[in-house]
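Suppose you are handed a protein chain with no further information: no name, no annotation, nothing but its sequence. What can you learn? This example shows the usual starting point.
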Amino acid sequence: MSSTTRLQSRGPALGFPPMWVVYREPRDFPEYKFLVRLWYGLHATSECEGFNSIVSARERLLQVGASARLDRMPGDDPAVYEVWL
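A reasonable first move is to predict its three-dimensional structure. Written in structure tokens, the prediction is:
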């Protein structure tokens, strides 16, 4: 069974602000409909948290300090649902 590490709101790492990427139906965590992973620039962290609804994922993102939602970009991985800053 897969496990996730709860999201944290930490200071900038490697000179980049935190960015949370929301994935829909992640293959590495099939027990969740959505997975949120913390990134700094182009560097993914091991911090992630799974959710069964986008509403729950968004509520959690607001709790950890995310404040701006961006839609996925055309070149993003198809699993990317949205990105939060």
